[in-house]
Specification:
This protein has 229 residues and is of the alpha+beta class. The chain contains seven helices and five strands; from the N terminus they run H-H-H-H-H-E-E-H-E-E-E-H. The C terminus is likely disordered.
């Protein structure tokens, strides 16, 4: 038969374990709340500093805000870059701007190495930032690296030119897809997959990117059934 003292000594470790479990749960909950906020703030701070370091050296010292207020405001370079880009875009839409661009491109076309670099970057920029052309606007599943193993990819467009002409099956056009790597989705592979083997997903491109970056740990909420086309 156990005495009251024995029972109290047996309950003490259980109470200590209960307090530790509560503290541990609170700490993990705090991490879940603090980590996204901290990482987001750090990324914004870092990117703003990087843009400032790239833009501000090209701005005369007399035109910088710290010349008047004595404080280096982080993010001023971002504001200057945005304003400069808006002004350039507005000018490029006019007749004078288009003529100036044509003159500049004609000069670049006479430079062998610069011409190749400029044309490649221009094509990429026009594809990524174009408002009318088809781009990465859908996520899909494809068989990679072999049949039966599925991988998440982004639909680019329907294959064109020589790639499309040399497709083995005429009634099953090739779809160009970008297969990103984990956890860095900016690198990956360009694949040409028959349209019949592409399974379109209902999840958005942003949700698919989160799934890839998290290595399968973050799944988007269900929006519907997976459909194939």
């Amino acid at each position: 038969m156990t005495s009251p003292d024995d029972q109290s000594r047996a309950d003490a470790p259980a109470r200590r374990k209960g307090r530790f479990a509560t503290l541990r749960a609170s700490f993990l909950t705090g991490l879940v709340v603090v980590t996204p906020i901290g990482v987001t703030a750090w990324l914004i701070w870092t990117v703003a500093g990087w843009v400032d370091g790239w833009v501000l050296p090209m701005v005369p010292h007399e035109l910088r805000p710290e010349h008047y207020i004595g404080v280096n405001l982080r993010g001023i370079g971002v504001v200057i870059f945005l304003v400069f880009t808006l002004v350039v875009g507005w000018l490029a839409k006019g007749i004078f701007g288009r003529a100036l661009i044509r003159i500049g491109e004609s000069i670049v076309d006479r430079m062998p190495i610069v011409r190749s670099v400029y044309s490649g970057i221009k094509q990429i920029a026009e594809t990524v930032f174009s408002q009318g052309e088809e781009k990465f606007d859908r996520a899909c599943l494809i068989d990679y690296p072999r049949q039966g193993i599925k991988a998440v990819a982004f639909v680019s467009s329907t294959a064109k030119g020589e790639v499309a002409r040399r497709a083995e099956v005429a009634d099953d056009p090739l779809i160009s897809v970008f297969l990103p790597t984990t956890p860095n989705p900016t690198s990956g592979f360009l694949l040409f997959v028959p349209k019949s083997e592409v399974t379109y997903l209902d999840m958005s491109v942003e949700d698919a990117a989160k799934l890839i970056i998290s290595a399968g740990l973050v799944y988007p909420p269900e929006r519907g059934t997976v459909t194939g086309k």
